[in-house]
Design goal:
Order of helices and strands: EHHEEHHH
Largest sheet: 3 strands, antiparallel
Strand content: 15-25%
Helix content: 40-55%
Radius of gyration: 19 Å
């Protein structure tokens, strides 16, 4: 057996309690297209992970701390969170990028992206505070506690 070393992967490129991370590879005869494929795959992976975490977090927060808020409030929380996630995806940082050329002249681009959890928390919190109906009952410290618990869970 031969060990395969995959650039931009491994424990230091995995999601943890502070960062949501994803690694991906793109392959093409055009280097720019290979890079775009890798970025797109990593972005999609991060978006999926964030959406799952945010959905669980909003559900926990609205159920536990808002005394089972009505369905409209839950939907509003989820819509705000989803919109914020889409905005925050524009702020993803590249933490690793390596380009290689294969023997058949194709380009492989390996990439790892991350988004800081505190940036996501602040973005969602600020969006909720700007919503007149939700702001009244919103308790930031409780929301932050639920968010941090969700971030610390293994994927």
């Amino acid at each position: 057996d031969v060990a395969v070393i995959v650039p931009c992967s491994g424990p230091e490129y995995m999601t943890n309690s502070q960062y949501i991370r994803a690694s991906a590879m793109g392959l093409s005869t055009d280097m720019t297209i290979a890079k775009k494929k890798a970025q797109s795959s990593a972005r999609t992976e991060i978006a999926t992970a964030i959406e799952a975490k945010v959905k669980a977090m909003v559900e926990d927060y609205t159920s536990s701390y808002q005394n089972g808020e009505n369905d409209e409030s839950k939907r509003r929380f989820q819509d705000i969170a989803r919109t914020t996630v889409q905005q925050k995806l524009n702020g993803l940082r590249t933490i690793c990028e390596q380009t290689m050329r294969t023997p058949d002249n194709k380009y492989k681009v390996y990439i790892a992206l991350e988004l800081a959890g505190n940036e996501l928390l602040e973005g969602i919190s600020n969006s909720i505070k700007n919503d007149d109906k939700l702001r009244i009952d919103f308790e930031y410290e409780k929301f932050k506690k639920v968010f941090e618990e969700e971030m610390s869970k293994e994927n």
